[in-house]
């Protein structure tokens, strides 16, 4: 059962996995703060749609999470307009695929800032309110790449492994205060992020698009099926429920058996 009257901030929720998580949490009665980039009208339609369909309060912050001052602005907005963040989903992330010796330095800095450091900033600013209320859920969006590596993804694999460390420390520091922190580790999910990666991997490895899907992506996933955004959203909602009260600091795979190999 999901406790009532909670506010969830889902970063990177204008697309893909984050959008599905925000929708699922709204359906379960949470107020929602969306974040991410995109077309203004489409984002407003998503925000207004959640409020109307599920009868919750829904807001939006366009903060660029690579800038700590923008993150501070987003967290102040959450405190002012929503009374703080009860459920924090650190989901925003990007990918870049290239061999280490050719990896653009600016891409490395961007991926570490967004996929790892942003979660530190949101967490440090959300924790005091959660501890004061004696309840909080922090879900970090990891990846199978928080556990294992693939070539050409140095920044992404580094950031996701780092996020696994932050998850465990947050879990320990929050444990006695009703705060739980876990890492969801999906395999491949067919979102715009993966679409871009298919193109990049094709270029890096000299393969066609179909070859990448069959020989790289579905090769890694023993079920030979993509994970769906709805399956990840359902898992995230479960982690916010009372049934999940003793799940803390865990790296939770939802990868069709990828990391079992
Ligand atoms: P996506 O590209 O569909 O969505 C990414 C979201 O992040 C968008 O809302 C985008 O606007 C937002 N974003 C990008 N840069 C931002 C910035 N600087 N500031 C704020 N928001 C920003 O990607 P997705 O596939 O839904 O991925 C979401 C998360 O899931 C990522 O952390 C990704 O690493 C992880 N993940 C994805 C897969 C997969 O196969 N798709 C697998 C494992 C983990």
Name of the level-1 CATH class of the largest domain:
Alpha Beta
Can you tell me the CATH superfamily of the largest domain? NAD(P)-binding Rossmann-like Domain
Strand order of the largest sheet: 3-2-1-4-5-6-7
- Which structural category do the helix and sheet elements fall into? alpha/beta
Comma- or semicolon-separated keywords:
binds nicotinamide-adenine-dinucleotide, alpha/beta, Rossmann fold
What does this entry look like structurally?
With 261 residues, the protein is of the alpha/beta class. It has two domains: 7-186 and 228-253, Rossmann fold (3-Layer(aba) Sandwich), CATH 3.40.50; 188-226, no CATH class. It is 49% helix and 13% strand. It has helices spanning 16-27, 40-54, 68-82, 105-133, 154-174, 192-205, 209-220, 229-239; strands at 7-10, 31-35, 58-61, 87-90, 136-141, 179-186, 251-254. A seven-stranded parallel beta sheet has the order 3-2-1-4-5-6-7, sandwiched between helices. The longest helix has 29 residues, at 105-133. The structure holds nicotinamide-adenine-dinucleotide.
């Amino acid at each position: 059962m999901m406790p009532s009257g909670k506010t969830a901030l889902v970063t990177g929720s204008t697309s893909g996995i984050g959008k599905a998580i925000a929708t699922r949490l709204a359906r379960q009665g949470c107020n929602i703060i969306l974040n991410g980039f995109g077309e203004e009208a489409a984002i407003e339609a998503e925000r207004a749609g959640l409020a109307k369909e599920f009868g919750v309060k829904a807001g939006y912050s366009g903060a660029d999470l690579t800038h700590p001052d923008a993150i501070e602005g987003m967290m102040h907005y959450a405190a002012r307009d929503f009374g703080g963040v009860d459920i924090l989903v650190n989901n925003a992330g990007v990918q870049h695929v290239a061999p280490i010796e050719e990896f653009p330095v600016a891409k490395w800095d961007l991926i570490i800032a967004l996929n790892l450091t942003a979660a530190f900033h949101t967490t440090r600013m959300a924790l005091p309110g959660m501890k004061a209320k004696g309840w909080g859920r922090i879900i970090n969006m990891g990846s199978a790449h928080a556990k294992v590596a693939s070539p050409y993804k140095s920044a992404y694999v580094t950031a996701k492994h780092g996020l696994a460390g932050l998850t465990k420390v947050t879990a320990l520091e929050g444990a006695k205060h009703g705060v739980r922190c876990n890492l969801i580790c999906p395999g491949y999910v067919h979102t715009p992020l993966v679409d871009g990666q298919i193109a990049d991997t094709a270029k890096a490895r000299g393969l066609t698009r179909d070859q990448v899907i069959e020989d790289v992506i579905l090769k890694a996933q023993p079920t030979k099926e993509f994970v769906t955004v709805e399956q990840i959203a359902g898992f995230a909602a479960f982690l916010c429920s009372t049934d999940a009260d003793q799940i803390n600091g865990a790296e939770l795979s939802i990868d069709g058996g990828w990391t079992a190999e």
